[in-house]
Amino acid sequence: MTEHPLHREGAPLDSDIEVDDDPGRPVHLRASSLGLVALGGAVGTGIREALALTWPTPAGGLPVTILAINLVGAFVLGALLEALARRGPDEGRRRALRLLVGTGVLGGFTTYSALATDTAALAGSALGTALAYAALSIVVGAVASLAGVAAGGALHRRSAAGRGTGAAS
After folding, report:
1. What is the Cα–Cα distance from 164 to 162, expressed in whole angstroms?
2. CA–CA separation, 83 vs 60, rounded Å?
3. Phi and psi at residue 98, in whole multiples of 5°?
4. So where are the chain's domains?
5. Which ranges of the chain have pLDDT less than 50?
6. What is the pLDDT of residue 94?
7. Taking a C-beta distance cutoff of 8 angstroms, is the pair 108, 49 a contact?
8. At what angle do helices 112-125 and 64-87 cross, to 10 degrees?
């Protein structure tokens, strides 16, 4: 079998797979990966901050906006990662989407630091409420991420069934 004249040793033949910007470095240390995460993180953090400023926590109240942000983020991250995993290996566009949206946007959108700060602030005046808020955030967040995984799987199955019958997906 003859090599394609434009194919270099080590270069991918599939245009869906990126050419590594530094194949000697681990993926998490490559400039392209760091750039995607930083860009996505800036977007996600901006969205979270805009929502938190639009619906601030009233003095002495529960930080419902941060709770909702974390729960929505957990659901979307579960759905995204499940959908990407079912579509194939973590490479090319799938990896770029995971880094940009999953790690970047959703990592910046969700916020453990605000959860911790809000819990500590509540603990100063209402320890029981603070513990309930933290537990609710963690437990319902885990349930939301599992629901996202289930939704991502269901969307994939529905999409695969549509492709199998010739329907447009």
Report:
1. 5
2. 40
3. -60, -45
4. 27-164
5. 1-7, 11, 13-17, 167-169
6. 94
7. no
8. 150
Give the residue among 139, 73, 150 at the shortest CA–CA distance from 104: 73
Q: Where do we find the tokens 């994939």?
A: 156
Gap between the Cα atoms of 14 and 31, Å rounded: 22
Each residue's pLDDT tens digit, 62-106: 999 999 999 999 999 999 999 999 999 999 899 999 999 999 999
Q: Is 7 strand, coil or helix?
A: coil
pLDDT, position 9: 53
Element of type H or E holding 108: helix 106-109
Tokens coding 104: 């970047």
DSSP letter string, 139-162? HHHHHHHHHHHHHHHHHHHHHHHH
The span from the CA of 169 to the CA of 160, in Å, is 8
CA angle 7, 9, 12 (to 5 degrees): 60
The conformation of residue 3, written as its DSSP 8-state character, comes to P
Tokens 């911790």, residue located:
116
